[in-house]
Amino acid sequence: MNLHSRTLSTRLPEWRVSASLVAYEDALALMEARAEAIAGGGAPEMIWLLEHPPLITAGTSAGAGELIAPERFPVFKTGRGGRFTYHGPGQRVGYVMLDLKARGGDVRKFVCNLEEWLIRTLAAFGVQASRREGRIGVWVDRPDKGAGFEDKIAAIGIRVRKGVTFHGVSLNVAPDLSHFAAITPCGISEQRYGVTSLVDLGVKANMTAVDDALREKFAEVFPAL
Prior knowledge:
The protein has four helices and eleven strands, in the order αβαβββββαβββββα. The protein has helices at 3-9, 24-39, 107-123, 207-221, and strands at 14-17, 46-50, 55-58, 75-77, 84-87, 91-97, 130-132, 135-141, 150-161, 164-172, 193-195. The strands form two sheets. Strands 1, 2, 6, 7, 8, 9, 10 and 11 form an eight-stranded mixed β-sheet that branches.
């Protein structure tokens, strides 16, 4: 291994945090450019933490009947996996641009690791969350609502191009949960499955604290190359 390749192999991901709301078009353009640069060896991996203005994104499996109020928020078609997802203020979006080829190339394991990252982050705030068979994302039990009731607190949707991941996760910190009524979140319409947030669960956590936990837990789940 020459000196240059050794330096690249130990490079840590870049972390970026946007203080103001980021337009979806701008985020998508930056993600695609960065993923291309990572694939070409010209940039390190990157995790970008941000908030969007209220909007809806449609994944590759989104069904037209799952968009309940199409005029309420701007809707963007995107190449990520999954169905309809709402993004808005109070929700921490984490766009994850990693060299999956260098990390083993296992997409299913990558999604599982994203879930684990979120589960550990929520545990830092005393929230017991877990994954569900057949339902991508992170969920919490809601016995206060009734037997068998569960709420989704974090969503996952990714895309892989040239061996590099982009798009990522969204964690509900303190969004307006009524906005989720514009869609059938992730195509799940059963009454016992809802949407929640840290604030809704009674957890007082600001975005800075959430970002600190995300960064700490990321390093536990995704070791540096």
